[in-house]
Design goal:
By secondary structure, the protein is of the alpha+beta class. The strands form 3 sheets. An 8-stranded mixed beta sheet has the order 4-3-5-6-7-8-9-10. Helix 5 packs parallel to helix 6. The longest helix has 21 residues. The N and C termini lie far apart (43 Å). The structure holds D-MYO-inositol-1-phosphate (IPD) and calcium ion (CA) (2 copies). The site of one calcium ion (CA) has 6 residues, from strand 5.
Length: 257
């Protein structure tokens, strides 16, 4: 697995360098209302795809922007977000990352998330633990909802009656603090290294979550759907936490109507 971890980290660094190169010169456009993309997203994805393809020509690939490639007799698939936090990037809020996950026969086996602003590389391999810049990381020990620091993602342009907004309001009354940051990948890393206690969203895509959920579970945390059901990278419903009693208690809070 070491070979794949090294490749995921290198691919994430390749993408991160491109994001920083474009940071002073990009232009942004809307893919759909308020859903932004820049030259940096596209250039990062192209370079990551090229790098991974040169190392693993038979592997499948799924990237957010345009990368979609069937494996050639291989059951490996790379799941790539070349810039997670495009809205932050466009507004020069330095909270964005590159996320590279690897599945084997549908199971997440390796992942790396690189934050080029803090030069932080989060990585994990199945059964081998999670690291931040090479040092082992672990989730927090918080157990009480009322003392927990959480993050949530809300869908773009969600109106006040959206179920995700209702969950957010339920949580606001119950937790110590609930934030919205603009990068699901970095939020998952924050859960993994104990900077926050939980993160949830009902609007994520596979590339937002793939690497991050492995990093959380390998750091000792738990992932499920917000109703407590088994997590799937193909279903846009995620609750990631430190895996203490807090997890089940947050399921109850998020399930209130
Ligand atoms: C977005 C971020 C954000 C989440 C959105 C994602 P992008 O990814 O992860 O935190 O709330 O659902 O789409 O578009 O910046 O790659
Ligand atoms: Ca994303
Ligand atoms: Ca993206």
């Amino acid at each position: 697995m070491q070979e794949y971890i090294v490749a995921a980290e290198e691919a994430a660094r390749v993408g991160g360098a491109i994001l920083q190169e474009w940071a002073e010169k990009f232009t942004a456009r809307e893919k759909s209302p308020a859903n932004l993309v820049t030259e940096a997203d596209l250039a990062s994805e192209a370079a990551i795809g090229e790098y991974l393809l040169s190392r693993f020509p038979d592997h499948g690939m799924l990237g957010e922007e345009s990368l979609c490639r069937e494996g050639n007799g291989s059951d490996f698939r790379w799941i790539i977000d070349p810039l997670d936090g495009t809205g932050n990037y466009v507004h020069r809020f330095p909270y964005y990352a590159v996320s590279i996950g690897l599945e084997k026969a549908g199971q997440l086996v390796a992942g790396a998330i690189y934050d080029p602003n803090r030069d932080e590389m989060f990585a994990a391999a199945l059964g081998e633990g999670a690291t931040l810049n090479g040092e082992r990381i672990a989730v927090s020990e918080a157990t009480l909802v009322g003392e927990s620091m959480c993050m949530a993602s809300l869908p773009i342009k969600a109106d006040r009656n959206h179920h995700a907004v209702r969950k957010f309001l339920n949580a606001l009354e119950a937790v110590q603090s609930v934030q919205r940051s603009g990068s699901a990948a970095l939020n998952l890393c924050a859960v993994a290294c104990g900077r926050i206690d939980a993160f949830w969203s009902n609007s994520l895509m596979p590339w937002d979550m793939a690497a991050g959920v492995l990093i959380v579970t390998e750091a000792g945390g738990t992932v499920s759907r917000t109703g407590g059901e088994t997590f799937s990278v193909d279903v846009p419903d995620l609750l990631a936490s430190n895996g203490t009693q807090l997890h089940q208690d947050l399921v109850k809070v998020l399930s209130r109507d």
